[in-house]
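Q: Could you predict the 3D structure of histidine kinase?
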Amino acid sequence: MTIDHPSHLAEALRRRGYLISSWPWRALLYLATTVPVAGVLSVGLFIVGAPLFAVVNAARQGRPVELPIVVSLVIVSLIALALAPLVSIPVAAIERWRLAIADPRPLTLPRLRGLRARYVSAAAWREVAYACWLGGVVPIAYWILALLALLDFTLIASPWLAGGADHIIVIWTEVDTTGQAIPYAIAGVFFIPIIWYLVGLLAAAQTMVARWLLGVPAGEVALREVTRSRARLADAYETERRRIERDVHDAAQPRLTSLTLQLAMAKLDVPDDSPAAKPLAIAHEQAKGLMVMLRQIVHGIRPQSLTELGLAGAVRELAGEAPVEVSVLADLGRPVPERVETVAYFVVSESLGNIAEHAAATRAQVRLSQSAQDLVIEVEDDGRGGADPARGSGLVGLADRVAAVNGRLLLASPAGGPTVVRVELPCPR
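A: Sure. Here are the predicted structure tokens for histidine kinase:
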């Protein structure tokens, strides 16, 4: 028979054998190792909060608040806000390491890269909140638990303390003899399991808060996994696209070309008045039409102009084929990954198609640029505006194509125009 062992403290507390397991001792160890960390943070919070306490105390007593105290409060508050995201770094690291004592389950860590992320990321400020909670709330709970444990110890030790020259007080009763203290000692012994459970409950509550504030929320983990899955699907699609393009180009297209040539040669050898001349001419025309269709299919998989001209050249070719006047401004200082390049091409192609079909525009402009992290495509026209994805203008499919590479699409199209489509595709240096 397989024994199901609890994986963390909160689960162990619900089991019958909790008191005879190692979990109470692990909870006690977790609380004991918390004391130095929480103690240091408590001192820091006291230093930061001292000016605030002075201001509140003066206001409560109706006394005017002195200017030096207000200045000290402002300066200390600004320094605390500036240093809090940095001070929380070692605190969070220690707490994540200590968490394995009472909760060994894996913890998904947030991605905080660079100094700027320490000040603008929600995960960094959750670490600050945990440090404040650890230094402000946890010590109060520990003092209450310590007082209960001290009271229980007093109850158990009362028979040995009673009977001396001095009278002792147990709870609210004065005890003079050992006999009077024995019932309190028995009650203290029965109170030991409750203390053990309180230790476990306090440690479990602390681990739950630590996992909540120091880890990545479940929703973000799921979203990150969806993003990774979408990226894997996009990579798989790109690989399959290359295979199909290679097979069509290297296998089907040469054989179809050869068939077209054979039909053309056979057509030359057959007299015009022969009964086979007309069917042969039809077959030759169908073969040529199939060649055109095959080229269009290959072009739809990955435009040949991208391979030959690059993104800027392929976009200029699209602009030259558009029914309206289109100017292209391209400032691409570094190579663009093939997958991003393909998406960017179809963004421009679809946008110019929408302009020709829906915008009633006379001119348009395409701008290609690169920031530190993104390839930015902007397509602007002077049409009537009012573009709405709900009307089936191709914007929904365009947004899906952009999302497949973890990009984003922004649309500005007020009634009367102009319409601006801005697409940002990840393209880090």
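Q: Anything worth pointing out?
A: The chain has twelve helices and seven strands.
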